[in-house]
Each structure stands twice: as C-alpha cells, then as structure tokens.
Known about the structure:
The protein has 339 residues and is of the alpha+beta class. The protein folds into 2 domains: 6-152, 2-Layer Sandwich (D-amino Acid Aminotransferase, Chain A, domain 1); 163-324, D-amino Acid Aminotransferase, Chain A, domain 2 (Alpha-Beta Barrel). The protein has 7 helices and 18 strands. The chain has helices at 47-50, 74-87, 95-108, 185-189, 192-200, 245-256, 311-324; strands at 19-25, 28-29, 33-35, 54-56, 59-63, 69-72, 121-130, 143-152, 163-168, 205-209, 217-220, 224-229, 232-236, 260-264, 276-281, 285-294, 300-302, 335-338. The strands form 2 sheets. Strands 1, 2, 3, 4, 5, 6, 7, 8 and 18 form a 9-stranded antiparallel β-sheet that branches. Strands 9, 10, 11, 12, 13, 14, 15, 16 and 17 form a 9-stranded mixed β-sheet that branches. A hairpin with a 5-residue loop joins strand 16 (285-294) and strand 17. The longest helix is centred in the first third of the chain and has 14 residues, at 74-87. The chain is globular and about 55 Å long. The two termini are 22 Å apart. Residues 58, 219, 222-224, 242, 244-247, 281-282 line the site of pyridoxal-5'-phosphate (PLP).
Amino acid sequence: MQNIEWGKLPFGYFKTDYNVRCYYRNGEWGEIEVSSSETVNLHMAASCLHYGQEAFEGMKAFKGKDGKIRLFRWEENAKRMQDSAKGVMMAVPPTELFHEMVKKAVKLNEKYVPPHGHGASLYIRPLLIGTGVQVGVSPAKEYMLIIFVLPVGPYFKEGFNPVSIQIARDFDRAAPQGTGSIKVGGNYAGSLVPSERAKSEGFASVLFLDAKENKYIDEAGPANFFGIKGNTYVTPKSTSILPSITNKSIVQLAEDEGLKVERRKVPVEELAEFDEVGACGTAAIISPIKKIVDRETGKTYEYCKDGNAGPISTKLYKKLQGIQYGDIVDPHGWVSFVE
Ligand SMILES: Cc1ncc(COP(=O)(O)O)c(C=O)c1O
C-alpha cells in the first residue's frame, strides 16, 4: 500500500484491495463474493447499458479517536436503494444482504479507512445493475449488486468554505412524476451539461428549479438545498428531489437545537430573505453557499458577507460531523460499528 496523505485526499476514485458482489439469478440472491478485480464482465445486451436499469448509493464510514469504524445510518441507504430498485423495476436487495455486504467491503479494506482528524472518510458506493440480456424494453431477469469503497477527502475543494452556485433555468434535472426521488443514473446524466457549464463559468454547482413551473427551488446539484431565516430551517418539498439522508439528519439536529423546520415549496425570490443558505449531502455534508447567480436574469443573491459560513450552518455541520466521527454523543442511534 502506498503512503496515503490522508489530509490531501481528493473526492475521486482510489483503488482499494477488494469489492464485494452478489448476483440475482433464477429469482433469488446468491452468496456474497469477494473480488479484487476493478472491472465487471457484462453482456453487451445487459439492461443497465441500454435501458438505464441501474441505481447506486453513496454513504460513508468514519474512524473515531477510539479507532472504531462507524457507519452512518446505513439502514436509510439500504431503504433508499430498495426504493430505487422498485422505481426502475430491478430485483430488490434485502436489507440484511445490503448490510452484510457493506460491512464486508469496509472490513476487507480496513487499512484504507482514514484515521481520525484529517476530515477524510471511507466512501462506500453500492451499485445495482441489470445484467440480464434484454433487447425489447422490459426489465431484466438478472441483477448484480456490487459494493466498492474508497478513501475520500472533501467533495468541494473549498471544504467547509462557502461556494458560489448558479441557477440554470434552461435545464430540468428531473420531472415531477419522474425518477428524481430515486438514485438512478439517468438523473445524473441529465444534469451533466448544466453542471459542467456552471463549473466552466466559475461556479461549484448548479441550482435546479422545479421542472413544471420553473418557480421553486429543487436540488442543488447532487445535494439538497436549505435556507435559514431567523430561527427557521427551510428546505424544499418536491416530488423530484432525492430524499437526502444528510438533510433528514440535519432537520433532526435543527429541531434538537430548538429551530423551527419547514419543508415546503421555496420560491426563487425567497432567496433574498435567507440569512444563510447551503447544500447538503453525504459527499460534502454541508456546503455553505456565499453567492447564487441566476444565469438568465443575472440576479445575484449574496450571503456569508464576512467570508465565513453562517453560525447556524456551522453549528449543524459541527454537530453532524461530531456524531459521525464519534466525537460527541449520538443521541438518535445513527451510528453503528464495523467490528
Ligand atoms: C441528487 C442528490 N440529492 C441529494 C443528495 C444527498 O443525499 P444524501 O444526504 O443521502 O447523500 C444526493 C447524494 O446522494 C444526490 O445525488
């Protein structure tokens, strides 16, 4: 194993030693297999390649000061992968199978779990694909669940420093009655053009509005959006956003702190009323936002005027990270250990 500079890890692919795989054939899931290959052997007519029968998850393992490896709310990821599987008619991985595979993938690659104190973690990527041969448009009969892991640093190079994002009105991420609420690849394919354009224009990410009326805030790239106004935490309610496990956790922590929480439609103009805004998700946890520019109108909304994240975002971020790394008590039982 090469010497890893834990404090300098990017958020990108990193080869580890093993991955775990399980195949669904003849109507049932088989045994968990361990592989050290980075590739998968697929039939050219596999349904994942043609009809987008694929779903994935993103979750993290953290090492505490005590050296123990902690998984954060893995049950929620299992449940969301099951919802995604149902949403594109794939075989549904049982919760226990998912858990066993996650634990095994982490344990086998234990030496890649970043030590405590570098802000790094082990990213876990479960991937479910249709492997059955399918030429007409219908669901395959065979599937593969594969889980690989990699050590990662912060998602945005800015880390917990505020980023700028861009409203794109000429692209929709997902349709109101489409697949936006599940984690399937097609949603991300459709987001690449506006998101790369935003990056080329100097922004960290893109802010999508609702596809039907183009009036309400939907998703902040691959993350949920939130705004804080006085003592209230506001986050969009929409049928086309992915239910973020990070957001769900922050909502709980905000309530614990005595904040009022509102899940509702958030009109774009309301951006002018927030004291703090941010994006949240497993990869970045919380990305404070300092500037939002509406690409079409040029209208600009600014926050973090002193250059720093706002006090409430900072408090929620520290609390969530503290729980994940085992530095503070875990009052809601979100953390479980990989022994
Ligand atoms: C589109 C989208 N929204 C939100 C999120 C955040 O979800 P979570 O907090 O569960 O990682 C993600 C990342 O998984 C995402 O891809």
